[in-house]
Amino acid sequence: MRFIFHNPHDLIWFKAPVTYDFKSKGVQKYVHLLDYFLDHDKKVYVYIDRFKFYDNRHGLRKLLPPLTWFYIWLLFNKINPLRFKIITDINKMYKDDILFMFLYGNFTFQTGELTAARKESNSLIGRSAAFKVVHLTHYMYHASVGSENCKNANIDLLVAENNLSRNSKFFQSTFPWYRKDVYVLPFVPKDKFVRVKKFHERENKAVASGTITYPMDDTAFLSFFGHSMLHPMRTQIYENREKLQTYIDSIISPVIEDQALAGTANYAKQIKYFSHDIVQLYNNYTMFIVPEEVSGLPGIGFAEGMKCGSAFIGLNDPMYTDIGLVDKVHYIGYDGTMDDLIHKIEYYQNHSLELETIAENGYNFVSEHCNKKNVVETFLRDMKTLCLHRNSTNR
Question: Is the pTM value of this prediction over 0.85?
Answer without folding.
Answer: yes
